[in-house]
Amino acid sequence: MRMIPILFLWLPALVMLPAAQLGPYITHDTRPVITNGPYLLAPAEDSATIVWMTDTPCHSKVVYEDSGGRVREAENGEHGLLPVGLRHVVRLRGLQPGATYRYRVVSTRVVKMKSYWPEKGLSVESRLASFTTFDRRKPACSFSLITDTHEDVKRIASLVQRIDWGGTDFLVHLGDAFHGIESEEAIWNLFLEPLSNALAQTRPLLFVRGNHEARGAAARLLADYVPFPEGRFYYARDHGPVHFVTLDTGEDKDDETNVYAGLNRFKAYREEELAWFREHARTTRRMAEAPFRVLLMHNPGWGWVDQQNGRWTEAANEAGIDLAISGHTHRFAHWEPGRRGNRYHQLIIGPDEVARVDASQTELQVRVTGKDGETVASFSVPRRK
Ligand SMILES: [Fe+2]
């Protein structure tokens, strides 16, 4: 008698079992498609973040292998649940500095989300690719920088063609990839996809936010597409002889400017950032010990900081910055130390220029090339101590 209700409960599930059932729960014979990416972001010595999109809701993981052949998997569980959606962000942690990892991303379709017995689909895998983590012990490093691409996909294609990828450890985009971020699709179509194709799932992108990234309907979603472990757009990294500090120079106009309709709060945000920068410079041993300190920021004039620009220049001077690299003005400039209160070299590159920095133990060799590959400027920054 006690068996009857149990059989009754199971009967509908048994009746509904499809032909495609492969396991203990319903699995439909339908495979998702990777529509964007994957691309590598937030490079560090012990972690990397991989982002991609699928055409249908999936849960995801990254399968990766170190040079010793040890295979591991990284997922992105949050609050006890695997995220199910179209955008997939997986951070690989506990990596070794200067190590090369082979990886592929895997997304498994979730056809129908229910409290019990969600219905699944099949999995899609990306091609196998590899990347190498940052490493402060490396005696030299090289990186390339572009800026102010302003939604111009042809410009991006031209810029990335001119980069010597063979000798570039990573790419920096110095901001203003947009006029204003109007949609999530625009983030891929006008910025990430043209770059991720060029980065070939192999070289990471280090992104610096520009003032135009603070505008538009999807501006508040940007951090979901270019996430950083720190959860903010200012952070530090180490690679080779360089300690990198990336700053967010925010908007270029007062919070009270009517074009923002009272929606901006950069004054307090920038004060917090300045406090972080000063504290980081004061307490981080690597700031003192690295052969070089390179500052990456969009606006060479610090953005709108309520007429406190001098405090920022002084903070950079006290931090011992050797070289700052920016965009924003759409015009090449090289402010040598002492020119505007700066005790460091300030390089500004234009939208059609590529900067390349080769860092050794004794100097930063900087070269800026123009649209036709001509040299716009070339200079070196010697080690101070
Ligand atoms: Fe700008």
Care to describe what's here?
This protein has 385 residues and is of the alpha+beta class. The protein folds into two domains: 19-132, Immunoglobulins (Immunoglobulin-like, Sandwich); 141-382, Metallo-dependent phosphatases (Purple Acid Phosphatase, chain A, domain 2, 4-Layer Sandwich), CATH 3.60.21.10. The chain contains seven helices and 19 strands. The chain has helices at 3-16, 153-161, 184-199, 222-225, 266-283, 285-289, 309-318, and strands at residues 34-41, 48-65, 71-74, 85-92, 100-112, 119-125, 129-132, 141-146, 170-173, 205-207, 235-239, 242-246, 292-296, 323-326, 333-335, 345-348, 354-359, 363-369, 375-382. The strands form three sheets. Strands 1, 2, 3, 4, 5, 6 and 7 form a seven-stranded antiparallel sheet that branches. Strands 10-9-8-17-18-19 form a six-stranded mixed sheet, with no helix packed on it. Strands 11-12-13-14-16-15 form a six-stranded mixed sheet. The longest helix is centred in the last third of the chain and has 18 residues, at 266-283. The N and C termini lie far apart (87 Å). Mean pLDDT is 93; it is low at 1-19. Residues 176, 210-212, 298-299, 328 line the site of fe (ii) ion (FE2).
Estimate the mean pLDDT confidence.
Answer: 93
Order of helices and strands: HEEEEEEEEHEHEHEEHHEHEEEEEE
Counting H and I runs of at least 4 residues, what is the number of helices?
A: 7
Number of strands: 19
Task: Indicate the low-confidence ranges by residue numbers.
Answer: 1-19
Beta-strand portion reads 25-35%
Q: End-to-end distance, in Å?
A: 87 Å
Determine and state the CATH class of the largest domain: Alpha Beta
Major β-sheet profile = 7 strands, antiparallel
Helical percent range? 10-25%
| SS-based class | alpha+beta
Which shape, going by the Cα principal axes? globular
| Total domain modules | 2
Q: Examine the secondary-structure arrangement and name the CATH architecture of the largest domain.
A: 4-Layer Sandwich
The unique ligands bound to this protein are: fe (ii) ion
Radius of gyration: 24 Å
| Full CATH superfamily name of the largest domain | Metallo-dependent phosphatases
CATH topology of the largest domain: Purple Acid Phosphatase, chain A, domain 2
